[in-house]
Amino acid sequence: MNHNVVVVIPARFASTRFPGKPLHSLAGKSLIQHVYERAKALESQVDAIIVATDHEGIKSTCEGFGATVCMTASTHETGSDRLAEVASIYGWADNTIVVNLQGDEPLTPLVNLQQLIANMRKHKTVAIATLAAPISSREDFNNPNVVKVVRDETGLALYFSRAPIPFQRDAQSTPLQEYALRHIGMYAYRVGFLKAYPTLKSSPLEQLEKLEQLRALSNGFSIHVDIALQNPGAGVDTLADAIAVEALLNC
Predict the structure, then answer these.
(1) Which of 92, 96, 132, 192 could form a cystine bridge with 181, CB 3.0-4.6 A?
(2) Do the Cβ atoms of 114 and 42 come closer than 8 Å?
(3) What does pTM read for this prediction?
(4) pLDDT tens column, 169-182
């Protein structure tokens, strides 16, 4: 089966902070249905939209609102591993573009998903495309939960870190917002990379930073980083997040 672009929505039941999160009801629909309907707005631009899950309840719910579902193993350590299994099950060609739309991101801007697809088509040798946004505060710059990225002149990632990079030696030099970028965890992959990913050795840098994208860089795969056209919408990691997102959906 030779697809050009597909959207895969990973949806795990066993979230540590919010078990059963994909099935949580928001404004009369499950969280996973809201995400799926967000992806459906891209239906004319992609060849398939697939929910990838390891839970029968999520599968049943998704099929109930018309989604295509791929059952995957419950043992995957990373989202990339789960996407690799989906690509293998469907037998997609190496040049197929897989857009990863997280199952807890119901407010993801469609323009950002389109941007990822466009960047993968434009930069034909990159394995992964992702997004970033300027950092405007020192608090965020120094926050280890805000992942930073530095790029070369063509937009290729040089490094991702929880540390404040690049270091500003001269306080009178270029203002912070001119160079500091916050990584936005949205990705598009080529299937050729996803096929290789499960065989790649986890690098010491990945283990130190706990950032799986460093596995790709350490093994010689390129990642294109573009500035997001729109700031990402709020995601759902906790019940409190769900309440806040529901309020936005009801607006």
Answers:
(1) 132
(2) yes
(3) 0.92
(4) 776 666 666 688 99
